[in-house]
Amino acid sequence: MTDLHWLTATEVRELYARKELSPVELMDAVLDRLEATEPALNAFVTITAEQARDQAVQAERRMANTPFDELPPLTGLPITVKDLIDTAGVRTTYGTVTFSDHVPGHDSADWARLKAAGAILVGKTTTPEFGMLGVTDSRLTGVTNNPWNLAKTAGGSSGGAAASVAAGVAPLAWGNDGGGSIRVPASCCGTVGLKPSAGRIPSSEAAYDGVSSSGPLTRSVADAALLLSVTAGPHPGDPLSLPAADPRLFLDAVGHPDLTGARIAAATHFGLGPIAADVERTFREALDRLRDLGAVVTEVEMQLPDPIDYFLAFWSPSAADFVDQLRAQAGWDDGLLHPIMLEIADHARGMSAIDYWRTATETRSKIAAGFNAALNGRDLLVTPTMPLVAFDHPGALAGNADVDGQPVRRPALDFHRLTEPPSHAGLPALTLPCGFSSGLPVGLQFIGAAHADAQVLRMAAAYEAATPWHTRHPHI
């Protein structure tokens, strides 16, 4: 048997069903791995080891007394949860010093479903303040490192989640994504990361913008489908959540992966560069592999609105709101926030309500129209996930200063150029590794039409099954 800490959740379930592995045995391996890697990674805010061990014992007892196929689908599976997501009774800091001792009294809607399905919380993973940066660096926890190279960023804002999965801690992680906060760290760390269609996974607070969503970071596409299968569905607290789908829809999709005859559009970028030469080369090799698997791949030119402009116009008002709330706290000091967050907040103070409204309506409509045109008559759109691989820890810049020596306009936002647009169109988007450059993973992004989550999963699973990249592990 492979080392327990590298098993996927799907493999664990198969071993559980055959009674060849127990939840206690797996949890011991997970916690041992966490202890061994955490000093180097700095991926956790809170570790719930004692609680996790107790719940593993309880799961083992349930397995002994109940047929496996009658148990909740995540029974005995360890999971980490990003520290932006409320977990009743477990510290949730939102990445900030101000909330360093905050313990919510309720579960978020998504975590409540994961918990009810039997998942066991191992700990809360690191995030920048309120998830507002693309690198995982906060005044509360410091910098989270990339398990492939500790000098490189793990991405953000679900950086702790991606780093922990890639490093062999829990096989499952739960994060959230507005403009790439699942997909960027998954690409940096070489994991699968899924941002579902708008409304697929409900929010405890009505997400009327339809841009942000919770979602999985995993070691396989099948594991992402497993988590989606237990979290999707309507919720009374989110009136924009989608109706319930067949519970088997996502699992059946990855059970029958196929690309034969698939019509795929491919775009190296969305009209704005640059893209690193090694990323473009690896992307084109992935396109050739898709063709080998029977897909008809057509390269398309796309010209979408500037994602940096609409990132600032759309997200900076919420950053300003967060900053104002913090400044209202007694004894607050702006030095407790990353300077880029203050810069983003200040951008909002120079905007008008009309600026925001036009971005939320006209600009987003143009983005949706651009994707509709690219996907017209096609099953999927593929792009690189990032314009470059994981870069050196950026410090105050909070991003890459250049791509292949060519300076970028906004370092803190540039590397989200390819993940921000599909979010604003409400489309399902999944990243998985498609190769390596200088020992660092390169991500391939699969973007589907609205509500076509199952199709994205099916095609990504077909590519994954035919390539070796997901089987590689960092030597940390």
From TrEMBL:
<dbReference type="InterPro" id="IPR036928">
    <property type="entry name" value="AS_sf"/>
</dbReference>
<comment type="similarity">
    <text>Belongs to the amidase family.</text>
</comment>
<dbReference type="Pfam" id="PF01425">
    <property type="entry name" value="Amidase"/>
</dbReference>
<keyword id="KW-0808">Transferase</keyword>
<feature type="domain" description="Amidase">
    <location>
        <begin position="25"/>
        <end position="457"/>
    </location>
</feature>
<dbReference type="InterPro" id="IPR020556">
    <property type="entry name" value="Amidase_CS"/>
</dbReference>
<dbReference type="InterPro" id="IPR023631">
    <property type="entry name" value="Amidase_dom"/>
</dbReference>
<dbReference type="GO" id="GO:0016740">
    <property type="term" value="F:transferase activity"/>
</dbReference>
<dbReference type="InterPro" id="IPR000120">
    <property type="entry name" value="Amidase"/>
</dbReference>
<protein>
    <submittedName>
        <fullName>Aspartyl-tRNA(Asn)/glutamyl-tRNA(Gln) amidotransferase subunit A</fullName>
    </submittedName>
</protein>
